[in-house]
Predict the 3D structure of the following.
Amino acid sequence: MIAIFKRELKSYFYSPIGYVCVAAIVALYGFFYYAILMSSGTTAYIGSVYSTLFSFTMIILPILTMRSMSEDQKNKTDQALLTAPVSVVSIVTGKFFASFAVYFVASTLGLLPAFALAFVSSPPWGIIFGNYIATLLYGGAMISIGVFISSLTQSQVIAAVGTFIASIIFMYIDGIAASINNPIVTKIVGWISFSTRNATFTAGTFSFASCIFFISVISIFVFLTSRRLESRRWS
Amino acid sequence: MIEVKHLTKRYGVNTAIDNVSFKIEEGTIVGFLGPNGAGKSTTMNIITGYLSSTSGSVTIQDIDTLEDPSAAKKMMGYLPELPPLYLDMTVKEYLNFMFELKKVALPRQKHIDEICRLTKIENVYGRLIGNLSKGYRQRVGIAQALLGNPPVLILDEPTVGLDPKQIIEIRNLIKSLGKNHTIILSSHILPEVQAVCERIIVINKGKIVADGKADTLAHDLSKDHKLVARIAGIEKEIVQGIRELEHVEDVLSLGEKEKGVFEISIEATPETDIRRSLFALLARKGWPLLALKNSDLTLEDLFLKLTSGEDFAVQHDLENSEHPEIELEEAQDEADTSDEEQTETEEKGEDNA
């Protein structure tokens, strides 16, 4: 797993893709911290910095995950991975953590403006860290979904578009459910809604249940991706 | 040791491999021979665990590949048809990555250096794989398979894309590796298999059609043990003279090939050697012998014979088969063009006689 993690992480930085994604996210953090907080002149709007950035991150994440599995299938390098004495789950886990690591670096660097603010004001750290953890967990879940989608196709473009559509669905699923007057639908959506889980963190509170929820989503999709790799052998 | 038992792989209604069984002893080099799409790569992919089989089992050094895949995979080095290379890595990075991936326990730098020396890739060690030529990529692929000194090597068309000099180098490398590795290599180039392998398994349409030692396969599968001689003298006297020799079943003149020189086809009873008595006869009569050759099937003929027949697929086990002649006759019914030519000349020869 560690060998695959290292290789995948490096491969993000062999090509510009890793640098571009990290730079884009960090630049956006900087920009919105500046634009929103400077214009309002108060740190009370830090929540809206994160919620704005959230949509942008959802566009960048598919680019991070699109090549994760599909490229191996296309270049037949999966033959090296699958005939090596490693389990399929550890291959997928290695790939997931590599994508996540890039995202983690970008999000963590996104905290820099907050630290800069600390010199001149006292930002609400609870809300900042709540949002930071929410970004990581929600992003992690989306990465695991992205990795799964990229295992379904050999085409990186299809993987990216598919992941993007999936992330839009998760973003707006609450809105769609609200327009359907059916208590069962509302209840089911309530269970799977990422936003509801996310909201507890963005309010500045740490919810253990939401934490477990996102980690479960990650585990499920890592598992599904492994099953997908296995099933290709049996087709 | 590799043991494959009743391996079958179906893709929907298509059967890629059909009930393939064989056993390979330790330290042998086995050639997998067959036309494109015969099932060579599929068989190799199943042995290495990349694909699963529909039914049947594979054991590597007594480890079932389904029961303990990790342990079995550790025993094998695999070079797939297309080397599984990451084009964005340098050779150095790639080999180090594969070293870690395969969980090799040998001293890293020393081992990698040794493999680079064996496969002659030291001079491209620091270069990006994406910038290497096909031949070098192939060698990096072989280097990757050798990492960790696995006792079993599975090489799918290892010399594809190499220039003639490299081909010879790689063949020699494989031969030298054969001393302490069990190797399966696939190819559709016959001289290659003949040059490198001790045993040949011919596979066609997913079935094993022949299995035997490289040098005896053609000989044993030949219907008859024919000699073809070029003798100077008078045609009728020569044919008559040879006919009277012991163990000679049939003599045919194939016509005058040079001025006053006739090509004679001599068929002897199986398991006999008439060359000495033939020489004695010719010497006594004063007929100069200008050429003498065994007309065993060449591996090429054999290959075409075994693989051209539409329905011809006989599981042929040399040691156990009682009637190889009958099988060959079936094959000969499916005569290819070269056979037809031969029959024509034979007929002509008969007329002459």
Notes: Chain B touches chain A through 30 residues (CB under 8 Å). The two ends of chain B are 55 Å apart (CA to CA).
